[in-house]
Amino acid sequence: MAVVILGSLLAAHVTAASEQDRSQVSTLAAKVQEVTGDAVELAFVDQGSTGAQAAQDAEVHYMPLAVVKLPGIRSGSENAPQAIASA
What we know:
Mean pLDDT: 76
Largest sheet: 3 strands, mixed
Distance between the termini: 15 Å
Strand order of the largest sheet: 4-3-5
Number of strands: 5
Strand content: 15-25%
Structural class: alpha+beta
Order of helices and strands: EEHEHEE
Low-confidence stretches: none
Radius of gyration: 12 Å
């Protein structure tokens, strides 16, 4: 899921729970750039969307990733945002 800073939905890509978040970066980045007319220059992501391949997949769509660590979260069980795109 990708939202703008104020929370409006830009794009969503639904997969099985067994799929890795980072393997979906390319598909979601392409959808975001499509709906925004390639206006997004940076994507803020949680740690589930990190790694060399995820970063490379986002760069193909001219959208570098910036990892956001929320204070106080120690495990993945809390509800953290998956991806936030900034236009």
